[in-house]
Amino acid sequence: MLLNVSYNDKTITKKIDDAVGKPFPIKERFAMGGIGSPKLFITEASIDIYNLLILDSNTNTCNVEIRPKGIIVRFRSRLETYGLIIPYYKLNVDKGDIGIYSIYMDHYFIKMRADTKAIQRFFRKLLDHRADNLPTNIEDI
Q1: Interatomic CA distance for residues 110 and 128, integer angstroms
Q2: Which domains does the chain have, with CATH numbers?
Q3: Rounded alpha-carbon distances, angstroms, from residue 132 to 12, 69, 90, 127, 137
Q4: Does the pLDDT value for residue 129 go beyond 80?
Q5: Residues 54, 6, 38, 32: is their CA dihedral positive or negative?
Q6: For the segment 27-70, what is each residue's pLDDT rounded down to a tens digit?
Q7: Average confidence score pLDDT of the chain
Q8: Using CA atoms, how far apart are residues 132 and 123, in angstroms rounded to an integer?
Q9: What is the SS3 string spanning the chain?
């Protein structure tokens, strides 16, 4: 779901916490080596996200936060901050062209440039955490 997360609203915070879980405690953040991504440059996005990004002339960037049951992709447009809340069971990550990662959920997608080792390590950490926390499939039983 795509939400405006600029303001501290209890209903939006509850929606986010129900979908992807509460943020990790500090101790777990250090144990994981951090839960946030470096700055990611957006190269392409779905129409809903693109319509928000073209409202200003700033560079289109985003960051990804790992949560216990999913991720939050945050980006800014004008003076507002938007978050794409993605539970792990709806998350699809694709490494397409050289240095391009794509994050898909339902009809939303964001393609971003990943041309440094730090970004590639973050996506490896994200995929490992997702694999550890996905619910068991029926085919696996």
Answers
A1: 20
A2: 2-134 (2.30.29.30)
A3: 27, 10, 15, 9, 13
A4: yes
A5: negative
A6: 999 999 999 999 999 999 999 999 999 998 888 999 999 999 99
A7: 90
A8: 14
A9: CEEECCCCCHHHHHHHHHHHCCCCCHHHHHHHCCCECCCEEEEEECHHHHHHHCCCCCCCEEEEEEECCEEEEEEEECCEEEEEEEEHHHCEEEECCCCEEEEEECCEEEEEECCCHHHHHHHHHHHHHHHHHCCCCHHHC
CA nearest to 114, candidates 103, 105, 106: 103
Residue 68 CA neighbour count, 13 Å, CB half = 10
Which residue is associated with the tokens 């390590």?
121
* Encoded tokens for 18: 């129900």
Per residue in 66-110, pLDDT tens?
999 999 999 999 889 999 999 999 999 998 888 899 999 989 999
Q: Say if CB 64 and CB 122 are below 8 A apart.
A: yes
**Cβ-count burial of 140 within 10 angstroms (0-12 exposed, 13-18 middle, 19+ buried)?**
exposed
Separation of alpha carbons 96 and 116, rounded Å: 15
What phi and psi values does residue 4 have, to the nearest 5 degrees? -85, 115
